[in-house]
Amino acid sequence: MTGAVRPGGPAGALPGGPSWPVRSGMVPALADGFNARLETAPDLAAALPAGAAVALVPDRAAASAAGPGPPAVPAARDWLRSLGKTQLAVAFAEALWQSREVDLLVWIQATSRASVLSGYAAAMVAATGRDQASSCESVAAQFLSWLAETSRSWLVVLDDLADPAVLDGLWPAGPAGRVLITSADAAAVPGGVQVLPVGPFNSREALSYLMGRLSADPGLRLGAIELISDLGGEPVALAQASAVIASGAMSCYDYRDSFAGGQKQLADSSGAPPSASAVTWMFSFEHADQLAPDGSARWLLALAAVLDGHGIPQTVFSVPAAGGYLAGGGEAPAGDEPTRAALATLERAGLLTVEPVTAPPRVRISPVLQAALRAAMPEGLLDQAARSAADALLRAWPEPESPGWPVSGLRSCTAALRQIAGNLLWVGGCHPVLIRAGESLDHAWLTGPAVDHWRDLVTTSDRLLGAGHPDTILAGQRLAEAYLAAGRADDAVPWFQWLLDGLARKIGPDQHEVLEARRRLGHALVAARQAQRGIAVLEAVIPDFMQVYGPGHPSTLGGRDELAAAYLAAGRHSDAITLYRSTLADRERTQGARHPETMTTRRGLADSYLASGRTKEALSAYKRVVADRERTLGPDHLDTIRARNSLGVAYQRTGKTAAAEQVCEQARAGFERVLGPRHPDTLRSRADLARVYRRLGRYGDARALLRNTLDRVERIMPDDDALVTELRESLADIGDE
Fold it and tell me: CA-CA distance, 605 to 578, in Å (whole number)?
C-alpha cells in the first residue's frame, strides 16, 4: 500500500483490523554470509533506546584515506560509501522484530519525498487497519501524529537518505519509538540526530566473512589471509571476490594474482592504488561474461545500471522491450527463462541480488556499482540502454494500477532513469513512461510530488518541444489538475487559463477539449475564492455545452452543477436553488433518482436551501440524501457518513439541538470507525459536535472536545488552516461562558 483512496471510494476499516505486531515496507534480505561485525560496527542496541534517533554513515576517515580513483570509475571514497550500513540496519531491525521488542516495524526507502510519503501512508494502513480517503500528505501527517501518541513500541528505518529536505515536515518522533537512518553522506542527516560512522571490516571480521562464504570448498581458502589484506576490509570487494572465487573454482591465491594486475592497470598517474572495489567489480563483470557467453548478462546489467538500484521489479527485464535488448537488438526470446538465467548469472558473480519474497521479485544493485557501469559503457550504449529501459518500464506497468509494489518500484525506476537519461527521453516527444509515472503519482494521490513532476515536465517540454506541442499542452493540463488536487487553487488558475488559451488557438472554441477547459477554469476560480470570475466563465460556457451536447447530456448537467455551486459560493442563494432544482429534475429523468450524480446535485440543493434560511426544505433534502445513500451505498460508506454529518449540522442551525446531537454523534462515530480519530473529516465532525454541545449548554463537554480536537488538528494541519483558526476562536469564545 503506497497511496490512498479518493473521497467517495471504498475506504474503510480493513477486514479484521491489524494483528500485532505489524510490519510495513520491504525490508531487504540479509546478504549471504552476513557478518554481524561485533568488533567494528556501532552498538545500535545501546545507542538507540526508545525515543532516540541515530544515523549510520560512512566512516569519513576511511573514505579520506582511500584517496581518489581513476576517471573511468567512481572515486575510491565513493566505493567506501558502500560499507554495509543497510545490512547493519536490517540485522538490527530483524533482531528487534524477532525478539518482539517492537510492535511496529516500518522500513522506508528514503531516496525521495514520494517514497517517504507513500511509505508513511502504507504504515498508517498497517497500524490502524483503515484505508484512508485523503492525500498521502494528509495520511502521513496522521501517521506522524499516531507515532507521537501511541504507547506501542515502534521502529522507523529511513534507508539511504540523500537529502534532508526529503524529511521536511515528515520527521517521525514519539516516546515509544526509535528512528534509524542510513545515509551515504553525513551532511544529509537532520540536525540533532546522533551520527554513528561505519568503516570497513577489520582483519578478523574480513577473514570470518571470507571463510564463511567459501565454506563449501575449503581448498578455495588458500591465500585468504593475504587476500583480505589486499582488499582492505571493503565489504563490497569481499563480497564480489568471494562470489567469483566460489563460482569460478579458483583459490584466493589465484584471485590475488589477477587482482594485483588489475590494481596496477587502474592506478592513476600519481601511482595511488584504486579502491579494491573498483577492481573487483570488473573481475565480477568479466566472470559474468564467461558464465553467459551469449552476452545476456552484460546487456541486462546495462539496463539495471540506468534504473533505481534500491529495487527494480523483475518484470521490467522480462517484457519484450527488454528481451529484445538482452538479445543484442535481435528478436526477443519467448518466456522469461532467459531473464531468470541472466539474473542468476549476475547474482553468482556478485553484481546484484534477487529477492524473491516480493511478487514480482525485487532486483537490487549497488548505486555505486551502477555509477561505475555507466562510466565504463562504450559510447552509444548508455543511450540505447536508457531508451530500452524506458520502453520496458512502460510495458511492465500494470493496468489497472494497484498500490504498493511493483508500482512504487516502477515510479522510482522512472525517476532514476529520467535523471540519468536527461534529454534522451524527449527525442521525438516526451516518452510515454514519463506521462505514465505522473499519472501514477496522481492515482496514488501523492499530490506534492505530482505537482513537482508535472511542473518539471511542462518546463522541459516547453524548452525542447515548444509551447504549442501536444506533449506540452498535456503536461500543462495535468499540472493544473495536480495543483487543484493539492489544494493550491490559486496556482491552478493561471495554468487552466494558459491551457484554455492554447487549446482555443490550436483547435477552435467549440471543441470538447476547449469546452471542458473552460468549465475547469470556472471550477478553479471558485475554488480559489474568485466566485464572481468563476460565474462569468461558467455562465458563458453552459449555453455552448447545451448547443453542442444538448441539455440532458452528463457534461452539460455537470457544468450546470458547477455554476450552481458558484452561485452558492457567491451568496446568490436564489439563483443556486433555481439551477440546482432544474438540474436535479433533469438528472432524475435521465439518470434516475439514486444515481450518484443525482444524489450529489440534491446535496447541493440542500446546502443552498440551508444557506438561504429555507430550513424545512433543507432538512427534507438532507434526509432524502442520507436515505438514498444509505440504501444505495450502505451506512458506512463515506458519502453516506458525510451526508449524515451535513444533516446534523442542518439540525443544529435550525435549532433542533436534540436531533442534531444524535445525528452528529452518529456521524462522528462513523468517521472514527471508517477513517480513524486523526482524519481531517473526523476532526471536522468533532468540531461540529462540539458546537451542538455548546448549544445544549454542555459547556464542559464542548470545551473538552474542542481542546482535544484542536490538539489533534494542530499536529496534522498547517497553522493557517481554516479549521485551526475556527477551533481556536470557538475555544476562546466558550472560555467566557
Answer: 9
Q: Residue 355 forms beta bridges with which residues?
A: 362
Over 90: is that where the pLDDT of 310 sits?
Answer: yes
The total of other beta-carbon atoms located within 10 Å of residue 205's CB is 21
**Which amino acid appears at position 252 of this protein?**
C
For 673, counting Cβ atoms within 10 Å of its Cβ (0-12 exposed, 13-18 middle, 19+ buried), the class is middle
Return the closest-CA partner of residue 688 out of 630, 633, 644, 721.
644
Cα angle, residue 160 at apex, residues 425 and 715 outer, rounded to 5°: 100
What cell numbers appear for 246 in the block? Answer: 566460489
> Alpha carbon of 30 to those of 27, 94, 601, 630: distances in Å?
9, 9, 56, 50
Q: Are strands 312-313 and 154-159 parallel, antiparallel or unpaired?
A: unpaired
What's the whole-model pTM score?
Answer: 0.88
Q: With cut-offs at 50, 70 and 90, classify the pLDDT of residue 74.
A: very low
- The grid coordinates of residue 321 equal 522491450
Higher per-residue pLDDT: 165 or 2:
165
CA triple 49-52-56, angle to 5 deg: 95
> How many CB atoms are located within 10 Å of the residue 65 CB?
14
479: cell is: 499540472
Between helix 447-464 and helix 470-485 the angle, nearest 10°, is 160
Q: What letter represents residue 565's amino acid?
A: A
Q: Is residue 625 helix, strand or coil? A: helix
CA separation for the pair 247, 262 (Å, rounded): 20
Which among 421, 390, 395, 393 is positioned nearest to 408, based on CA atoms?
A: 393
Tally of CA atoms within 13 A in the half-sphere of 240 that contains its CB: 28
Whether residue 249 is predicted with pLDDT greater than 90 in this model: the reply is: no
Rounded Cα distance between 583 and 588, Å, is 9
Q: Let me know: does 471 contact 465? Beta carbons within 8 Å.
A: yes
How far is C-alpha 84 from the chain's CA centre? Answer: 25
pLDDT tens digits for range 518-559: 999 999 999 999 999 999 999 999 999 999 999 889 999 999
- pLDDT by residue (tens digit) across 158-182? 999 999 999 999 999 999 999 999 9
Cα–Cα distance measured from residue 179 to residue 51, given in angstroms and rounded to the nearest whole number = 8
On the 0-12 / 13-18 / 19+ scale of CB atoms within 10 A, 533 is middle
Residue corresponding to grid cell 593475504: 226
Mention every residue, 6+ apart, whose C-beta is less than 8 A from residue 669.
Answer: none
Q: Are 577 and 608 in contact (CB under 8 A)?
A: yes
pLDDT tens readout for residues 7-61: 333 344 444 567 899 999 999 999 888 989 999 999 999 999 999 999 999 986 6
pLDDT of residue 482: 97
Nearest residue to 674 (alpha-carbon basis) of 56, 34, 133, 108: 133
Q: Which helix (H) or strand (E) holds 70?
A: none
Question: For residues 143 and 108, what is the distance between their CA atoms, to the nearest angstrom?
Answer: 14
- C-alpha cell of residue 543: 449555453
Interval 357-379 mean pLDDT: 91
